Amino acid sequence: MKKRCILPILCLPFLCAACKSVPTPSSSEPPQAIEEELQEPTTLPPPEHKPVPLPEPPPEPPVDPDIWDVSDVDISAIDQSRKLISFTFDDAPARTIENILAVFAAFNENNPDCPASATLFCNGCLFDSSSVSTLHAACALGFELGNHTYAHFDLTTLSEPTLQAEIDKTDALLEQADGKPRHLFRAPYGRLNDLVRATVQTPILDWTIDTLDWTGVTADEIYQTVWSQKFSGAIVLMHDGHDQTVDALKRLLPDLKAEGYQVVSISKMAKAHGVTMRRGNVYIRARKKEIGN
Ligand SMILES: [Zn+2]
Questions:
Q1: Cα(78) to centroid of ligand 1, in Å?
Q2: What is the whole-number distance in angstroms between the Cα of residue 203 and the centre of ligand 1?
Q3: Which of 35, 140, 150, 231 shows a CA-CA span of 20 to 30 A to 258?
Q4: CA angle (210, 137, 182) in 5-degree steps
Q5: Distance between Cα 188 and ligand 1 center (Å)
């Protein structure tokens, strides 16, 4: 009982001290300080006036070296309402390269709303003194350069060092024309094995439509092969060095445009269709994602 009686007495000085700290009009605190404290809930600036720290920008996603970089591929001239189809020419630069480029240049001159381009898969052993300037002109026309090895061997018969040299020597030549160290890859004869897929540092391109233009078929047969098998996302295999291919092109470019198509390089088609290509993967087409790859 004594303890109970003592507690209020012991606490009294502290209670009194606490009471003294409560501001009153007669205290030494400035009056405006009291007012601000009491009105704090209603005198706060509106929330929108509060300085809100900007959120930290999301970190840049790491660049995946396995993904084919299309950030510098210009698709501004692609009409997104059109179906897209890729023309590819293997075994370039050969006898008809200038004629192929001339057909595309003439078409683009007359069809600025639907410029056509293609991918040239080149062999280093075919280069002569004018090849770099010719391929440089092809790039200016919107073409893309691809690697078809140096000497067109069946790659499945080669050792890793020889295979690597076949790729690297041609990349170095192509870089003189387009300034790029690496290029889309197409294997001679389409022959691949695990070693080839592991050695190639870029996507590997096969094809959808084989025109068989190197076998001596006519221009009309080349035309009909493309016409009967075409779809948006298809990749057409043709070759440099055959006059009937050039003749077929003269009909295919305008007729495909009239059918709602635009002829473009593989990287342009992949970018326009939102298709991500990866190192070592083999692609036979590049359709829109909602259709499937
Ligand atoms: Zn070839």
A1: 28
A2: 17
A3: 140
A4: 65
A5: 5
Cα separation, 250 vs 253, in Å, equals 6
Strands 282-283 and 144-147: unpaired
Q: How many other C-beta atoms can be found within 10 angstroms of the C-beta atom of residue 226? A: 22
User: In sequence order, which ranges of the chain are alpha helices (DSSP H)?
Assistant: 2-21, 31-38, 40-43, 97-110, 131-140, 160-178, 194-199, 219-229, 243-258, 266-272
Q: How far apart are CA 30 and CA 83, in angstroms?
A: 78
Give the angle subtended at the CA of 178 by the CAs of 174 and 184, to the nearest 5°: 60
- Beta-carbon-side half-sphere exposure of residue 85 (alpha carbons within 13 Å): 22
The fold of 83-283 is TIM Barrel (3.20.20)
The model's pTM: 0.79
- Ligand 1 centre to CA of 89 (Å) is 9
According to DSSP, residue 46 is labeled P
**Rounded-to-integer distance, Cα 163 and Cα 169, Å:** 10
Amino acid at 272: A
The one-letter amino acid at 8: P
What's the sign of the alpha-carbon dihedral 248, 253, 257, 263?
A: positive
CA 155 to ligand 1 centroid distance, Å: 12
Please report where in the chains the tokens 């050039």 appear, as a residue. 246
> Which residues are found with C-beta within 5 Å of the ion, ligand 1?
90-91, 188
Domain ranges of the chain: 83-283
